[in-house]
Structures are given as C-alpha cells and as structure tokens.
Amino acid sequence: SQTIHQWPATLVQPVGSPLSLECTVEGTSNPNLYWYRQAAGRGLQLLFYSVGIGQISSEVPQNLSASRPQDRQFILSSKKLLLSDSGFYLCAWSVPVERGELFFGEGSRLTVL
Amino acid sequence: AQKVTQAQTEISVVEKEDVTLDCVYETRDTTYYLFWYKQPPSGELVFLIRRNSFDEQNEISGRYSWNFQKSTSSFNFTITASQVVDSAVYFCALSRGSYIPTFGRGTSLIVHP
Question: What's the CA dihedral at B47, B53, B57, B60 to 10 degrees?
C-alpha cells in the first residue's frame, strides 16, 4: 500500500533562518506531488506541484522554493524565513491522472518567531 | 474558471443529530470530478469520496451519504447520527482537466457529546 510521510511535524524557527521540510512517498511510482499551506482561517493554498523529477510548478510567488531530487521525494525550502511563512504545511501525492484524489501527509506546523 | 463554495463556516450539533454540509461548485466543463476530504484535529486531510460528473447516483457509506445534483451544481455531504469523532473540518474540492483541484474554504463541524 502507498504511504506518505513528511517531517518534521513541528518546527519553531527565528525570522531569517533557513527552512527545509521533506516529504516522501512509498509504494507508488511517478506520483504527482504537492505542497500546500494552511494558514489561519483553514483555506488550503497550493504552493508547488510536480509531475516529475526536477519539474516544479509554482502557484504563488513567495519566499519559498521546492525541489524534487528523486521520484518520490519532495522538499520545501526557504533561505530566509519571514513571519508570514508561519502555518501548517501539507504534502500530498496523487496518481498521475487528472481525476486523481490527493493523499496527504501528516502535516508540518511551522512557527516563525 | 472553477470555484467551490462552502457557505457554512462552522456547524455545531449535538451527538446523534443528522447534519448536512453544503458544497456548491462552478465550472464550464462537462467532465469534472468532485471530492470530499476530512481534516480531523490532528491535521492530516483524509480523502473520503470522489464523484465524476457523469455519475449522479447518490452514495452511501455507513453513516455518510453524498447527494450530487448537477441541476443545482451541488455536492452535499450528510452525516447521519453524528458522533464526537466526526468533529473535523470538511473540504469539498473540484477538479477538471488538470492535476490541480480547487478546494472550498472548508466547514468546521463540531459535535458536542
């Protein structure tokens, strides 16, 4: 069966520090991968998605970047965090078809102080 | 453009009550897919159901049921005999012709014992 895991679960970082959130998927090949952010108010904001290794699409211009160094690994990064980067980050995967439902990781809660 | 509206921000019920979560969508496409996800307090979004635009049959799974009506562009979710464990934020989503679903802003359901 397929599983998705992201880490760390909780992170408290000072403003200006770097960030690295990792996500891995097991049990499937060539998944679509997604990073979402959920700030206060519950809405899900799509940050990045990827349909293959090295292929990253950014939905929102911002302080963050994403990389997909391996087929089932997706990394969210920042060189210098801002206060506004605080939130709940969710990684997700789907089968590479247009109707595919998303399967989410456990989430990473980031607090920038 | 496509849009998903969950007009109910928060619903509060007492255990054993039935509750319906509304979802209204907008799309110009004839082929599309609708989804419901549950986000319990732990944070991880859990996929509940997918429906395609050509299948208007209602779906029942235990205490959960879904009513899809193309005539009103709605895909409502009913929980029968609600339980405290049903307390969560529920998201409706729409996908058509792309890998990127459009999510509603979610409805927070609180079930009191």
Answer: 10
pLDDT in tens, A33-79: 999 999 876 789 999 999 999 999 988 867 899 999 999 999 999 99
Per-residue model confidence (pLDDT) at position A61: 65
- How far A79 CA sits from the closest chain B CA (Å)? 26
Q: What is the mean pLDDT of residues A14-43?
A: 92
B69, containing H or E segment:
strand B64-69
Assigned token pair, A47: 């940050």
Residue B34 to residue B90: CA distance in whole angstroms = 13
Instruction: State whether A106 and B44 contact (CB < 8 Å).
Output: yes
CA-based nearest distance B95→chain A, Å: 7
The residues in B 2-41 lying below 8 A from A, measured between CB atoms, are 33, 35, 37
Distance CA B39, CA A87 (A): 15
- What SS3 state is found at A63? coil
Residue A4 and residue A24 in contact, taking contact as beta carbons nearer than 8 Å: yes
Hey, how many other C-beta atoms are within 10 angstroms of the C-beta on A37? 20
- Whether residue A91 contacts residue A72, with contact meaning beta carbons closer than 8 Å, is answered with no
Q: Are the C-beta atoms of residues B32 and B96 closer than 8 Å to each other?
A: yes
| pLDDT reported for residue A98 | 65
